[in-house]
Structures are given as C-alpha cells and as structure tokens.
Amino acid sequence: MSILPTATPFARNAIFSGLFPDEFCTRYPKQLEAMRLDKGSLNNFEADFLKDQLTHYNLSEKSLHYYKIWYAEEGTKFLSKISEYLNKDLIAIVVNFVDQLAHKRSESDILKEMVPNETGYRRAVKVWYQNSWIRQTLSKLAEAGYKVVITSDHGSVTVNRSAIVAADKNSSTGIRYKYGRNINVSNKSAIDARDLKSYRLPKIGHQTNYLFAKEDFFFLYPNEQNKYKEKLNNSFQHGGISMEEMLIPIFTMTPK
After folding, report:
1. Measured between alpha carbons, how far is 236 from 228 in angstroms, rounded to an integer?
2. Helix, strand, coil shares of the chain as percentages rounded to 5?
3. pTM for the model
4. Over the stretch 133-149, which tens digit does the pLDDT of each residue have?
C-alpha cells in the first residue's frame, strides 16, 4: 500500500529511505527545504536515502548502483552498459515512463486519442514494455542470477470533478493533493489533514495543512477554473486517496 499523499516526492522517497515523510524531512533538512520551495525535482536524494537505509540495516558493505531513467535513450544506454553493473550486490532502477504517460496525456491531444481511457492506458504500457529496454534488462538480470523486485510508489485515477481550493500563492501545485498555510476546500471532495503527527507528514511552514482529493475530484484555484478545468477533466492523476492510487503492485521474480 502507498502512503499519503500518493505522490512521488512523498511515496518514492519513503521507499528509498524506509522512513515516513515526517522522518525523512527531519533527518534530511535539504529535502524539507526542497518541498518548502516546491520547485524542480523533489527526489534528488534517493541514492543517499538508499545508502543510509542499507547502513541502518547493517548492510553498508553491500555494493550499490542507483540509476534513474527519464527517457528511452537513457534506458538503452543503461542496457548497453549493464555488464558493468552485474558485480553489484544491489541495483536500483527508477523507470519513469508509466508515470510520464499519465502526466503527458493531459497535455497532448494525440495521446488522448491513443489512450482514451484506462483500458487504453494499460494497453499502451503493455506495448511499450514488450518492445522496451527494460524487458531486455530483466532478461540480463535473470541470466546473471539476480532476484528482482518490482513495485510502484503510487497508482493513478481518472478525475472528472473539480473542487475549488482557497489557498495563498505559496501553496503547492498538486492536482490531487496540496499543502500550504491553512488551505481549504469542501469536505465532500477531500480529506483535510491538520493533525500532521497522525498522518506522519512534515510541517512545511507555519500553520501547514494538507488536502487529499477523494474519489474522482481534482483541485483548482478560483482564478484558474477556465484555464485548467477542461484540460484536466478525464485525465489520469494521483496524490489523493482512492483504491486506485493507494493499492500498488509488488512482486518478486526469481531466476529459474
């Protein structure tokens, strides 16, 4: 199961650190500052998190290679050099394609036609995988005797209903979750988390609270309704609370 919010800056950092968001933000002040600014990548410290987690479990002597892949060219490059990494005890690979497809779909009319619904989304991911570098990489790892664990930090859900959020300009920009100073939205559309300790969430600033969209809602600011409502309607989003976002797959593959 994922954590709240079901968003990469929180959920994937939790995987690599082995910590809840309030813990890794306390232990790593630079991560807290990045979240406070809400700019650029908020997952820049994953390799450090993983190294420290190995140390915590008395596995610091284990060799590690961490690799994050955004584009197909980077995946192909990784595959071409995989023989250089097969002496490592642990290889951690972050693959962003599935998440990128969900994000980019709302920005492209062509992708909306190619991926009209959740069935089309699953079909597109299957076609990509069958012809991708990752499939060949898994074969190479199996040949080398590696046990492979595959999971995701969150799922996604199709959103169809907008909810207007009252917030200042310093609040975060998420579509299904937001954090900021005393931000508000209708209770029927979201969970308003103000007891941060109970939710294991970091205090980003003064009077911080978090909003997690329920069901198929997405958040809009009052001055952005006309600009974004049509664009975001029927798009794949994450960060909120739903079974589609919270229940994540995890499986282990062992070489025959």
Report:
1. 14
2. 40, 20, 40
3. 0.89
4. 999 999 999 999 999 99
